[in-house]
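Example record

The entry below shows one chain as it appears in the dataset: sequence first, then structure tokens.
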Amino acid sequence: MRKDDMEGIYLLVSQGKTGKQLRIVTETDDVKNSLGLLLDRIMRSTSRHLSPFFILNEHGKRMSWGMLRNRWAEARETARVKAELEKKPDLANRIAQFQFRDIRPKAASEIEDISQASRLLGHSKEDITKRVYRRVGEVVSPTK
């Protein structure tokens, strides 16, 4: 993604498969959300480089998919080792199995409103989001 993908309070995203355009909000009522704070932090840390891209390596060059994959694997292994040292073998096993492609289902599962989750993932039908990407049960209240 590029810094010029920002338009006011929106991050403009083009869905890969459908080309559908999304505007992801980075703040509400002049208060930055976690995405807005992250993008601000990235822009501050990369401001000395002239690159138009958000994600850069230590030399100011755009990160390739391979570079991102390697860093993902290193971070996952660091987290797994930490869980092992903390004597949490179940957590360490779950961390070891987590893959980069699990991020879309995690996002779909964290958003309570299925309609919002579907729109974020670029699905035209909520059924696809429910069937393929939701990996947690619905949140419900008890009878009493």
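Notes for this example: The chain has three domains: 1-62, 64-98, 101-137. The mean pLDDT is 88.
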